[in-house]
Amino acid sequence: MRHLNDKARLNRSKSHRKALLGNLSAALFTHKRIITTLAKAKYARRFAERMITFARRGDVAARRHVVGFIRDKEAVKLLFTDLGPHFKHRDGGYTRIIKIGPRLGDAAPMAILELVGFDDVGEVAAPKKESKSRLKAAQKAAVEEKPEKKDKKKPVEPEEAVAEVQETVTESEDVTTGAEAATEEAQETAVSTEETGVEQVVDKEPEEVSAEPSVEEPVKTDEVIEKTDNKMEETDASSDDSSGEPEESASDESGEIKDSKDSSKE
User: Fold this and answer.
1) Radius of gyration of the chain from its Cα atoms, rounded to whole angstroms
2) Residue 209 above 50 pLDDT?
3) Which fold has domain 14-125?
4) Cα–Cα distance, 49 to 113 (Å, whole number)
């Protein structure tokens, strides 16, 4: 007998069909609404409602049975923590199918498969897993590091220009007031220093002035001249003595020669 033997093959093998139903159910539990073909939506509807029935039990055996079909741990956790309590008092009819017409290209009939009671919930993006590709990570970092283009200068409105001019005027006034205050402080400090200097001068006792006038000693030029004359005379005398001695010796020698000649003649 072929009772309840009306499975849709979907042109897939048993293992492929099992993985397809698990992925469709996980997407439905995560986003609360998916768009797929009408045949897949009808077949995934029965499978997803069975998983929700197991989630209503909430025991460990039911969780292990669901994990055998749905490998996404986050979807299973969401199913048992949120959807099970949400459908606790609802006996069946957890999903609905809405036809949306044929698909462009192959004209396959399309449909929306959604959970009941989540009409106000939009499509929720599934948590993205970090990509293990180093190339993709490097490309993403390079795109993020690119400097942003400078915006073109927008025309300045007259009100903004007036506000900028007023700000510059106020800044200049502040600068001038600060400079005036600094000059006043400098003048006050100078006056105070002068007053303190006068007080110090007044406090000091006048030094005693000697009655005798200071007479500078005259330079002894005469003595210096006499000393120089004496030195000159001494040098002249020494030079005369040295020149006279050789002349006398020469005259004596000439006399001796004459005597020797006379004696030889005799």
Assistant:
1) 63
2) no
3) 50s Ribosomal Protein L17; Chain: A, (3.90.1030)
4) 12
